[in-house]
Structure formats: structure tokens, C-alpha cells
Specification:
Order of helices and strands: EEEEEEEEEHH
Strand order of the largest sheet: 4-2-7-8
Radius of gyration: 32 Å
Distance between the termini: 74 Å
Mean pLDDT: 89
Number of helices: 2
């Protein structure tokens, strides 16, 4: 299944930042990029504001994957210096096969229906035997 990765850049500084570029290495052997790109450029992000973009990926692998941290490069308005920063890490991500995913999110409707039907047997069979015996006893009393 595809998944969407959202990147959000927050400017927590006192002034604006310029020429903000965000990039992350997405291994083509592990993922196909379905929509967007893992690189984005913003001309300016004002102080206290944020900018976001999304990338939709389709995994080609199964198992645990630990993504790299995204690189953020920008020009500080106050000093005019070019700076580099890195994103927080997402940690290890579990990539499931289609079969594992379906099993993990399944509602098990068929299993619950079978369970419900089989649960009625221990109640219904004795009840039907009781009714049959009760009607037979009532019929023999009427004949007498």
C-alpha cells in the first residue's frame, strides 16, 4: 500500500529565513515515488510560520526500514549566513506486505458470523428438545 510522508518546516527564529530547501534521500530500490518529490524549495518562511509538502511512496520491500533524516538548508535573514539543519528521525518503520496489511485491519466478519451461528447450537438444541418434550407431554395430558 502507498503511504504519504508529510514534511513540515517550522521557523522558530525571530526573523524570516530565505532560500529554504528540504531534501531527503529516498532509495529507489526500496520505494517508487507516486506523487510529489522528496525535495522542496521555499523562497521565504516568516518567523513563527511553517511550510509543508507531501510525498506519496509505494514500498517495493517488506520488513523494517529506517529512513534517513531530511536535510534543511537556508539563509538566515539576521546574519545572512547559509545554515544547515536536520529533521527529527521517525525511527524504524514496519512495512507490511499486502497480505499482512489486510490481516491486520480485517474485521473478520465471516469468522464472527460462524462463531455466532455455532454459539446458538448449545442454546437452540436443548430449547428445541424441551419444546418437543413439553408439547408431547401436553398432548398426552389432553388425551387422558
Amino acid at each position: 500500500r502507498n503511504f504519504t510522508q508529510e514534511y513540515t518546516v517550522y521557523n522558530v527564529g525571530a526573523g524570516p529565513c530565505f532560500d529554504v530547501s528540504v531534501s531527503e534521500s529516498v532509495p529507489s530500490a526500496h520505494f517508487e515515488i507516486v506523487e510529489g518529490a522528496p525535495e522542496e524549495f521555499f523562497e521565504k518562511i516568516e518567523a513563527g510560520e511553517k511550510a509543508s509538502f507531501n510525498v506519496t511512496l509505494m514500498p517495493k520491500i517488506e520488513g523494517v526500514w529506517t529512513p534517513a533524516r531530511a536535510t534543511l538548508e537556508y539563509r538566515d535573514a539576521a546574519t545572512g549566513e547559509d545554515r544547515t539543519s536536520y529533521s527529527t528521525t521517525t525511527g524504524a518503520l514496519q512495512i507490511m506486505s499486502e497480505k499482512e496489511y489486510i490481516r491486520a485491519v480485517a474485521t473478520f466478519e465471516q469468522e464472527w458470523a460462524i462463531f455466532g451461528a455455532l454459539s446458538l447450537l448449545p442454546v437452540a438444541v436443548p430449547f428445541l428438545l424441551y419444546r418437543s418434550a413439553a408439547s408431547a407431554a401436553a398432548g398426552s395430558k389432553k388425551r387422558s
